[in-house]
Amino acid sequence: MSAKLRMLFVTLGAASAASLAHAWGGVGHIAITELALDAAAYEMPEWVNNALFRQRVDFMCNEPDRRRGVELVCLDHENNPEHYIDVEQLADFDLTLGTLPVLRYDYVLAMSEAMHREPERFEQDAPDEAGISWMPGTLPYAMAEDYAKLVAAFRMCRILETFADDDPLRANELEQARAEAAYHMGVLSHWVGDCAQPLHATVHHHGWVGDNPEGYTTSGRIHGYIDSGVLRAHDLSAATLVGAVHIDPIRIADPANPWPEFIAEIERSLEQVEPLYAMERDDQLETDKGREFIVERLSDAAGTLSGLYIAAWKQSEITDSDIASYQRYEAPSPNQK
After folding, report:
1. What pLDDT sits at residue 125?
2. pLDDT digits (tens, 9 = 90+) for 315-329
3. What interhelical angle do 168-196 and 51-60 show, nearest 10?
């Protein structure tokens, strides 16, 4: 899709812009989180499996969508593109999923260079206030960066565990470090869940755009219907799925760099865009076939997420030099005697 056509779609769809970045709704995101926590449980530390800790992760898995309700342009500019990657639009910038740079600013640079080469291809008649309608989205970078932050949070937990028994102040810091780990586990869950919702991998996110020989719906309502309506129709939630659906964690080939697994999940999601639209057209989404489709998408997300949790914990293992480095650079608390 050309940048001009995308801009036209954004302009026509302004009325639904407030819901542009949502996926699965809170019920779906929590279901993915709980399924992943269960699948990863035997390879995680005991404190991650604590009921209160899991509640914190569940709460944080919807934080990126809550930010949508804060009307600050700088937040929209940063947060909104994190929820999607319109794969077809990458071609406008001479990119593909396979050639995406691994680092965010290399990606921005590649797009900027394409725009500089052929500026006429990227003219916009009515740019949006947040300045993001021209870009394909940054979802894989949100996943990569929150995964890395989770590794860092787990590592801090491990370091503080070495001091906590003998130092009440360090015990308090450990509690805070674990809360930070819950935060990043939840936010990572959100991005992975968004990735598995096919409408977050395509320019057809709020109805089919452009040529439409198969007669797919052009209504923007399809997005909210997939996010929440179909789940309600089939009574799909953590309560009905946990224990009823078996999740095998994917194995991350290189826990220091799970980028290939991020791209693979996006590819699987993109493959389901047309089947999803076909089922909607044929009134099949509220049948058994539709239920199987949605459960498979939620399970795919949970399998990826549980694998990332396990990989992040393994990657966070510490050495004596990590502990020494922490002791060397950490400022003592002003309350420490």
Report:
1. 61
2. 999 999 988 888 888
3. 50
Q: Is the pTM of this model over 0.85?
A: yes
Measured CA to CA, the distance from residue 62 to residue 191 in angstroms comes to 10
- Residue 140's Cβ-side half-sphere holds a number of Cα atoms within 13 Å equal to 28
What is the set of domains in the chain, with CATH numbers? 26-114+129-205+215-329 (1.10.575)
**Do 157 and 178 contact (CB within 8 A), yes or no?**
yes
CB-based contacts of 91: which residues, under 8 Å, 6+ apart? none
Nearest to 259 by CA among 121, 132, 106, 38: 106
CA-to-CA distance for 210 and 221, rounded, in angstroms? 17
Q: Which pLDDT score, from 0 to 100, does residue 10 have?
A: 41
3-class secondary-structure state, position 25? helix
| pLDDT of res. 69 | 84
Q: Where are the alpha helices (DSSP H) in 118-237?
A: 139-164, 168-196, 221-224, 230-233
Q: What is the pLDDT of residues 262-281, one digit of tens each?
A: 999 999 999 999 999 999 99
Q: How far apart are CA 260 and CA 69, in angstroms?
A: 32
Dihedral of alpha carbons 120, 122, 124, 127, sign: negative
In the chain, which stretches have pLDDT less than 70? Answer: 1-22, 124-126, 164, 331-337
Q: Contact 277/208 with Cβ under 8 angstroms?
A: yes
Which tokens belong to 68?
């949508």
- Give the Cα separation of 151 and 6 in Å (integer): 36
Question: Are the C-beta atoms of 206 and 83 separated by less than 8 Å?
Answer: no
**How open is the CA angle 228-10-301, to the nearest 5 degrees?**
35
CA–CA dist 44, 174 (Å, integer): 17
pLDDT at 314: 97
HSE on the CB side for 208, CA within 13 Å?
17
